[in-house]
Amino acid sequence: MAVPHVIPIAYQPKHRTDSIGRYADGQFLASVTYAFPEGFRPADGWEEHKRLYTVLHTFDAEGRYRDSEIWCAGTWAEQQRTPAGENGENPVLARARAHLAKLLRSLPRRAYTDIAIRPFRLTVDGVLFGLLTGEDEGSTGRSSTRTASASASRGTAATTPDPQPTSHRPRPRLPLRRRLRQDGVMTEIHTPRLLLRRWTDDDLAPMAEINADPEVMRWVGDGSVRDLELTAQDIERWEEEWDEEGLGLFAVELLASGELAGFTGLSWSEFLPDALPDVQIGWRLGRQFWGQGYASEAAQATLEFALQDRGLERVVAAVRPGDEASENVLRKLGMPAEREITHPEHGFPLTVHAIDLTEYEA
Questions:
Q1: What is the DSSP letter of 308?
Q2: Three-state DSSP class for 314?
Q3: Tell me: the pLDDT tens digits for 107-155?
Q4: Distance between CA atoms of residues 282 and 295, nearest Å
Q5: For the chain, where are the alpha helices, taking DSSP H only?
Q6: pLDDT over threshold 70, residue 180
Q7: Strand partners, 313
Q8: How far apart are CA 164 and CA 52, in angstroms?
Q9: Mean pLDDT over all residues of the chain?
Q10: Dist CA 51 CA 154 (whole Å)
């Protein structure tokens, strides 16, 4: 049977094709996967030859191959010699996860979805990568290299089992109204009482006032307040993330008064490598807006935006023990505690809460 010129690949969360999708004017196929060099035969010392790779292949809109980023995080032998970190994860695997998250973040306006690409092949470090057809395997006789061309779970090796589902309380759905740019990236969400939108120059002064309140900043980092200049840098960075990533932190505006209440949204927190490659949800509101359900309303809309509109498979949040207000919002979102990590800079404990699309839709 003839091999089709373009091969469709279905996006499947938590399976071998959960790191595929489209970005800007092209498509991508990414994975963290184990592979042996071509021609390798099992023998003593195989542990040094089994390598863990982070792989990103890119294609144009028609499925024609463009380029690849391939990086070796280490060998199976190195994984066995290296003790697990405080969170129980092997450092070699953690390096691969973090590098894959970095590569995926480099793709502007990416969305995880089905793709259709043409067969291709390339060899790096003696390992054959690509989308190989039956004809390819028949001509080379090296079907063992096929594992390096398949897409493994995002941020995990193909042999890592999926986590067990976590029970959670259902969340009420809010009536939302969305406004999209022509490129399809959502820039506004209307909830019953709030407008979630991009940032403007008029937001600088009220956001700086929020950041200057020690009580607001009590659970943020080391608790330091931020002045007008630092707030301006924050807003500039948040807007750059929107332009580059297609997601970021929304300014939260009260529909009734037009006041800026603070922010909510999504980010990759590189200062917390234990939480990568998952996207984190967060919020920060001025003290005068506390206790009125605004944080829950804004975060609920953001969670739906992340899982249903942007195609993310999983969202996490990291909070310090004792931050009861944030923990209450997470309970309303149906995001149970998953594990404990340590802040790498300040050394205090953090609790990671998580939810995936299947749990969200249950």
A1: I
A2: strand
A3: 888 888 889 999 998 888 888 888 865 444 433 333 222 323 333 322 2
A4: 9
A5: 76-81, 91-105, 134-140, 204-211, 228-245, 294-304, 324-333, 357-361
A6: no
A7: none
A8: 24
A9: 79
A10: 17
Please check whether residue 57 is in contact with residue 120, taking contact to mean a CB–CB distance below 8 angstroms.
yes
pTM over 0.85: no
Give residue 253's pLDDT.
95
Q: How many Å apart are CA 33 and CA 152, to the nearest integer?
A: 6
**Best CA proximity match to 117, nearest among 183, 68, 83:** 68
CB atoms within 10 A of CB 160: 13
- The token duo for 305 is 């935006």
Per-residue H/E/C for 115-138: EEECCEEEEECCEEEEECCHHHHH
Phi, psi (degrees; rounded to nearest 5) at 314: -160, 145
What tens digit of pLDDT does each residue of 294-304 get?
999 999 999 99
Return the closest-CA partner of residue 118 out of 63, 59, 67. 63
Dihedrals phi, psi of 261, to nearest 5 degrees: -90, -20
The amino acid present at 213, given as its one-letter code, is D
Classify the phi-psi angles of 353: left when phi > 0, otherwise alpha if psi is within -120 to 50, otherwise beta. beta
Q: If you compute the radius of gyration of the chain from its CA atoms, what whole number of angstroms results?
A: 22
SS3 147: helix
Single-letter residue type at 361: E
Compute how many other C-beta atoms are within 10 angstroms of the C-beta atom of residue 157: 21
